[in-house]
Amino acid sequence: MTTKFITLFTLVFALSCIGQTVKRPNIVLILVDDMGFAELGCYGSPIIETPNLDSLAEMVYVLPSFIIPHVVHHPEHHF
Predict the structure, then answer these.
(1) N or C terminus of the chain: which is more exposed, having fewer CB within 10 Å?
(2) Of the candidates 28, 33, 30, 29, which has an alpha carbon nearest to the alpha carbon of residue 72?
(3) Are 42 and 50 spatial neighbours (Cβ–Cβ below 8 Å)?
(4) Which regions of 7-49 does DSSP assign to beta strands (E)?
(5) pLDDT for the residue numbered 73
(6) How many CA atoms lie within 13 A of 46 on its CB side?
């Protein structure tokens, strides 16, 4: 009985995966610590060269302001 159930479940799962043709968007979220707004070339930095991020920014939508309103890190020293 268990073998029949596993076989049936596997068959139903495999058939349900075949019909999925919806393309999901690719999302890349880059998190950095202590970076100013104009420290990337795509935001106008004349000093710091970031050619790979600049070429990625030309192909996609770049968020103009993405600010976290609270402290992201904190010390975890417990005495």
Answers:
(1) C
(2) 33
(3) yes
(4) none
(5) 62
(6) 0
And the tokens for 15? 């058939």
* Sequence spans of domains, the chain: 24-68
Q: How far apart are CA 68 and CA 72, in angstroms?
A: 8
The pTM of this model reads 0.47
Q: How far, in Å, CA of 26 to CA of 61, rounded?
A: 12
Amino acid in the structure at residue 34: D
Closest CA to 47 of 39, 57, 55, 58: 39
Q: What is the pLDDT of residue 32?
A: 76
Residue 42 DSSP code: G
Tally helices (H) and strands (E) across the chain. Answer: 2, 0
Angstrom distance (rounded) from CA 50 to CA 53: 6
pLDDT at 78 (0 to 100): 55
